[in-house]
Amino acid sequence: MSPTLTSPIPELLDPKADGAAGDGAIQVQEQSAGSGEHAKSASKKIVAESCLSIIILGASGDLAKKKTFPALFHLYCQGFLPSHQVKLFGYARSKLIEEDFHRRIGGHLADSGKYPADLVTKFLELSTYISGAYDDDDSFRKLDKIISDYEAGKDEPPRRLFYLALPPSVYPLVAGMIHKNCMNKRGWTRIVIEKPFGKDLKSSEELSDQLGSLFSEEQLYRIDHYLGKEIVQNLLVMRFANRFFVPLWNRDNIANVQIVFRENFGTDGRGGYFDEYGIIRDIIQNHLMQVLCLVAMEKPLSLSPEHVRDEKVKVLQAIQPIQDSEVVIGQYEGYRDDPTVSDESLTPTFASVVLRIHNERWDGVPFILKAGKALDTRKAEIRVQFKDVPGDIFKCKKQGRNEFVMRLQPSEAMYMKLTVKQPGLEMSATQSELDLSYRQRYQDVVIPEAYERLILDTIRGDQQHFVRRDELQLSWEVFTPLLERIEAGKIPVIPYKQGSRGPPEADKLAVEQGYVRTHGYIWIPPSLKD
Ligand code: NDP
Ligand code: BG6
Prior knowledge:
Residues 236-514 form the Glucose-6-phosphate dehydrogenase C-terminal domain. This protein is of the alpha/beta class. The chain has helices at residues 36-46, 62-77, 98-109, 117-125, 137-151, 171-181, 201-212, 230-240, 245-248, 271-296, 305-317, 438-441, 450-460, 469-487, 504-512, 526-529; strands at 52-57, 86-92, 127-131, 159-164, 189-194, 220-223, 254-262, 327-332, 350-356, 366-372, 379-386, 403-409, 413-421, 429-437, 493-496. 41% of the residues are buried. 6-O-phosphono-beta-D-glucopyranose binds at residues 225, 263, 282, 380.
C-alpha cells in the first residue's frame, strides 16, 4: 500500500535513499492520518538513486492527458519524482511542437487546485515531446538516442519505464520497436500496458504470446486501475487483519455478494471503442473480476505479489461456467444515436452476471457482478449480504439483513448495516449502521488517484496490483463462451431508459439469487447529511 502522502515538496527525497521495495510490503503506520515525517520516511524507502526515464507512447491521446500525466504530476508534487532524477518523454505521431504539447497536458494539471501553479511549470520543464511513427526504426532509434543522452555520465544503472497509452492494436508493433531499439543496456526496462488485453481468450493469448516473446512477465505491468483504488487496496487488510471477519466470511454466513459498477453517463465520445467491446469486456471481465478475486480469495502466505496473485488465480480456476438463465444484458435507449455506433448494434451497455465459485468456502453463494452505463447514479460498491439470524425473536426479519458494504466511489466508505434497539422506551428493533466514511474519519488525508499508486508501484517494481498472465487467461476463459453466445444473438438485449436502474429483469435476477432488499432504511453518506 502507498504511504499516506501529504508533502507537496518536490525535492524532499534523499537521492542516496534505498532502491526498489518490490516486496509488496505494507507500511504500517501507528497513526491514521499521515504527517510530513511519515511521508518522508516512506518516500526514502521507495525511491532509488539512479535516473529514471518515463516514456509515454501515445502522449497525444486522451488517457495520457487525463490520467497518465496528471498522475505523474501528483507524484512529482509529492516528491516521488525529483527533478534531478526524472525525465518524461512524450512520444506520438502527431506533429506537435513542445509548447503545444505542454499546453495540452498542462491544461489538466492544475485542475485540482491541490498544488501551487508554479509546480506545473517546473513539472512541464521535465517533459519533452518527440514525434515519430510507431512502425519506424529510425524514429525509435532517435528516441533511444535522446534517452541515452539524458542517461549519459550517470554512474548508477538508469531505469526506463515505457507506458503504452495507445490503442491495443499497436501494442505488439510498439513493443517490438522498443525491444529492438530502446532497451536499457545497464538497468531495468519495464513496460506498462493498458486494458483491454484482447477481446476474448484467443486474441488475449495471442497478445500475451507476442508480448511474452519480447519481455519477461517481470517486465510487463498490465494495469487494471481498479486495483489502485483505496477501498480495493483495503480489501485484504479488512479481511485478513480483523478477527471479526475470519469466522464470518464464508457460505455458512453469507447469503450473496454483489459487486456493482454504475455510471450516470453514457459512452461519452468513446462510442466507437465501446461498441467493439461492450460492458462485459469494458468493466466486468477485468475491473469487477479483479475485485471478486480479492473478496473471495484465501489468505495468501504473505503479501508478496506472487503469493497474492497465486490465491487470486485459485478463485478464477474455481469459477463455474456461466448459465444464460443467470445473465441479464441491456442497452440504453439512444446509445445508437452516437454516429460512431452502428445503427444495428446489439452491444450491451448493461450486464448483470451471476458467478459461482465451486470451492469449500463459497459453494452455493451467488456472486452477482453488475455494471451499467447511463444509469441513475454513479457508484461502485461491494455489497456482502449475510443470512438471516435463526430464530428471530425480535420479529425484525422483514426490515432487512445485515450487510457489509464497501463503497469504492464516490465518497469512499465502509458501513455495516445492523439491527439495533430503537432508542426510547419501547423495545423495538430497527436498522442502523456502523459507519466508516473516509471523508469524515480521515479529514486531512488526500486519497491518491488509482493511477498515482500504480505508476509508483511500477517504479518500485511491485507487481502485486497488476494482472498476471494466468489471471488474464482464466478470466477470459470464464467470459469468452458467454460473449460468444451474446454475439450470436442467443441472449436478448433488453432496452432500458437513460437515468433508470437498468432493466428491471436485473433486479428480479438478484431477488431470484436470494438477495433481500432492505425496506424503510437507507444509508446516507455523512457528507450529504450536513
Ligand atoms: P486514444 O484513442 O486517444 O489514442 C492514444 C494515441 O494513440 C492517439 O493520440 C494517437 O496518437 C494514437 N493512435 C490512435 N489511434 C491509433 C491507431 N489506429 N494507430 C496508431 N496510433 C493510434 O486512446 P486513449 O488515450 O483513450 O487510450 C489509450 C489506451 O488506454 C487504450 O488502450 C485504452 O483502451 C486505454 N484506456 C483508456 C482510458 C481512457 O479514459 N481514455 C481508460 C482506460 C483505459 P498519434 O496519432 O499522435 O500517434
Ligand atoms: C474504464 C472504462 O476502464 O473505466 C470506462 O473503459 C469507465 O468505460 C472507467 O468509464 C471507469 O473508471 P472509474 O475509475 O471512473 O470508475
